[in-house]
Hints:
The chain is mostly helical. Helices cover about 60% and strands about 0% of the residues. α38 runs parallel beside α40. The chain starts with a helix and ends with a helix. The N terminus is likely disordered.
Amino acid sequence: MSQSEETTSGLRDMAAPTGESEPASPRRAFPSMSLSAEAAPFVPESQLSCLSEAEKHFSRCSAKLRALRADSVQLREQLNLLFDQLLSENYNKTLDASVNIRPEDVCSLLKHTSCLVPLSQEHLVVKFCQLVHHLLNQLKVIMDEQTLNVLLNYTVTALKDCSAWTHSDVVLALSTVVYGNGPHCQQQVSCLLSEGGLLLQYSSLSQQSMELRHVALNCMANICLRNPGQPPLDEQYRNTCFQVFLKTLLSLKPPDTDEHFYCVVIQAALKGVQYCLSGGKWKFGGGDELGSLLAALKRLMFQGTPGLSMEWPAVLYPAPLPQYEGVPSPKPAEPQAPSAPPKNATAPGKTSGNKKRKSKGKDKKTQPEESRGEEKDEEDKESVPALQRGEEGRGSGGTAPKPFPPLFYPSWKLTSSDSEFSDTEGNVQSKLRLSHVRVRQGALHCILAVVKAVENRTLYGYWSSFIPDSPTGGPPPLTLLTIILKDPSPKVRLCALQVLTAMLDGSRQFLAVAEDTAPPRTSYTPFSFLLATSVRELHRALSLALLAETSSQTLTQVIKCLSFLVANAPYHRLRHGLLTSLWKQIRPYVRHRDVTVRVSALTLYGAVVTTQAPLPEVQLLLQQPDDGSSLQDSALSWRQRNGEVQTSAASSKQSSCTQSPQSPCTPVEKGGSPPWLLKLCLSLVTQPREDHFDSEGGDTLEPLPVRLAALQVLSHLVRGYFSLTQASLSEIGQASTHCLGETDPPLQLHGSKLLEECGTGIILQYRAENNLPESSRVSLTQVVQFWSSVLSGPLTAALQNEQHSTLQASACDTLASILPQAFAQLPDKTQLMCITMLLGLTYLESSLVKMAAVRALGLYIRFPCLREDVMFVADTANIVLAALDDRSINVRARAAWSLGNLTDTLVANMQSVGADFQEEFSDMLLLKMLQAATRASADKDRVKSSAVRALGNLLRFLRESQMIRSAFQRPLEEALVALVKTVQSEATMKVRWNACYALGNAFRNPALPLKSAAWTHDAFSALCHAVTSCKNFKVRIESAAALAVPTHRDCYRDTKQFMCVWHSLVTALEHSEDTNDFLEYRYSASLRHKLSQALLHLLSLSQWQDMPSLGKSLAGDEGSGVKKHLTKFFSLEQTEEETDQERDSKGESFPPQQRIKSLQETLKRLKELNSNGVGLEELEGKETVANFLEELLKTCEVS
């Protein structure tokens, strides 16, 4: 009987009832079974025909397994056979996507089978564990809680009761069960990871079985894995696992261990470290653990590199200088048969005493290299890798060096005729190379996890161990750049680039001190120069990688890494030339055949024009005229053969090395010519692509990602270098309008944002503080034409596109960026369309659109042509009031900001138009605004900050006839109480500053009843407390300014209130330098200036009843301190900052001569006070005050 017939016979025996042969009747085709929850679902034969072979096989075997009971005859033989059949089938969905076996069927099968396999039948236990791993792993089953507990208890019990020879398979099944379920297995994990636990025993360094050690480490790694949203594993067990992983990584390969098995163990430990670090911060000890881990990872990221014999440090210590690494040992490495290099292969990574470069020449045995980017499986096809990759080549000491291949020629690629391995040896070497590649990948993935888990300031100390800070002339340091330039595996190079990118991300503050523009020092090397050297080394290495890389995926990461470098490096502190070289080198890649490479190249250009804009070097690059050379006719063309690429790479490297970075080529400016980058991006957005490598033909536009990247570069150009792009404003507007007219929402959105950037650039040119001559600005006629063209295009359709709220919001921002002077010259129909659109969009449900529309109205209310229109102001006020009650905090914040702008407009109209505007404005609407602002002042700080500003403006705008009305009296009192509470609160300093400003603004209203209101005492007390005790000096300055606003003595009420304000100002003046925060100390001069001004203001208003108290104050210790500060106030010139603050508070500034004149007038007024009926105490006080002012005046005149 053949084997297939035996199998068929066996299956029939299993399907037949016990003790009977299979009947011929088709009704007995399925085995009889009792109904239960564990029973397999009935599948009709008509549905079986629709299933894949794997599903049919699983269904048949599953039905037979479910039919078995613990008391079945020949249970062992039947289980054995069914296990073999299930294990023989491949259920991998990656190979057969049609496999669709339900997870609940698998869970039900495994739970039922676990009851059939007793732990005494160890062979069946092993097969069942293999089945658990096989099904869960290949079908990617997510188990329910009951299945998880059943399988956990079974495998853990099997580890305790079964013989040691089964433990390898049991632990493998356990690792599959706990994968991603570690937090749910705390009880079972405790017995495995506690002291003396089996997993700790099997994963220890003393474990002889590498296979058992591997599965134990893998199981511990899976326990530590945390899926998103899951709670982390208990810290105790996570730390235990981490220490085991770290010890494994620090240990060297035992001499009698196979290299492949050692790599497998290391891979499991690397995976465990990665899982421990994923999704959290570093919590595994101090610097020693981190340094030990980084040292081990650095050693392993060079695993399998031939010709490398290093004395690796056991610990990396944080230091600004490079970590010392021993010179490669002259002793040969320990011979290892599986990894020995071929006899005719040089080991250029091994260094010797000879530091002289080899002469260039061609190796006769070398064949042209196939492009690495076209390899389907790079790791499997690579021969013995070499450490050096064209830059350095050194032979071992004592032997004549072999001819060095051409520059960038990869010496690790050998044809079959060059290989000295047999087929069997070649397979062994291929597997070993693949293992080494996976170790290097794992090490780099772990370093990436460390970079993300460790704080930046801690990580910066280890930079020199992974990024070189000097182009040393001796043995090259082994860093990430070494791997990027010389590792034979594109995947490993990609991982190294990802690590470098993560290190550069967010490093702007660290790199900000880099500088090499100063003359070099001979006595010592400053840290700033070392950082600058690191930046230059990164540029040099990444530029070389850009030239040599042919794998599109890795090339994209190279350009992305350069983008992060450009975004974080301080080029304004570095010698010119770095960006110039990069600018020219990246240019051909905007026409690369791979879309992702083209997008990343454009992103890099965007980073260049964004960094520290406007940068003089970039400005020169943008002004360079196009030399007429085609972008495709470049030495870096992807279609050139290898020899041509090598020649161009060599020449490019030579030119980059010989050109002095201090003297970049000065471009010849071409009047009126738009930048090359601007023309390129415009063509990419609007013009049909040049089909050099696309087969579609026709007028096909560039792919969407390329067009979006080009639009982003245009936005960056307009934002940072508007003066260079303003000549092409019409073309940019046409391109943006073209994008708005297309159907892709992302393209429409970027087109709208580009228009907004254009509008913002125009507004910045017209700001008075920029002092830009009219000849350098875009003329008002051009601005009007620009917006007339835009507003007559598809922007209105974008405003009405309710399907894409983000696009609507962006279109609102575009309307908000219209220059006010240009808006006034637009046709009335166009103006009305803009206003109507914005008013209508505030009624939409989308909070994003509502927020943008309310913001735009808050800007329009300041337009000179609109702010005096009472109807428009009223319409805007009603919209803002409705938005203040919105449920979205973002909408309320924008509404409060717009209300602040609207009330600013009311005050401005009151001053420019006069009482007519106040009378026309609705009293009822004004009352609603006052009440809404009062309610908003109790909202979150984002809303409160603008609400209190609006309250101050409204209180200043109110007329006396309105204040005396009963409808206004209570809201008025509530508004002032709200301001007082805000000043006294623990809100953010911005909120408190605005509240102080608002009180001072309210005090400027002469109709405000400061003399009689009940809240006056609380208002002055709050300001006095703020001026003496607030930690923020800007709040103190504003509170002092508010205290000096009232212009009549009666506003300060009685002498007690007046002197309370005086003593508060004096106390604040004495402690004006008491702060531990350097950021606050810089405002101390401004604070003293404002306090001195406030004290003089009080003296100018003082009356007879104040003289006794003022005399006592000035005659004592307070007087000497006040005299010292006032003397400085009258003699010193104001700083620019003080002048600006004074203008903000009172609208004018006072030079020293005017201050002395004000002092003379105060003294004169004091002497002319009527003394009729005045007591002796008042006369004595007046004499003391007058003497104080006379002495102060004499001191100032002398100085």
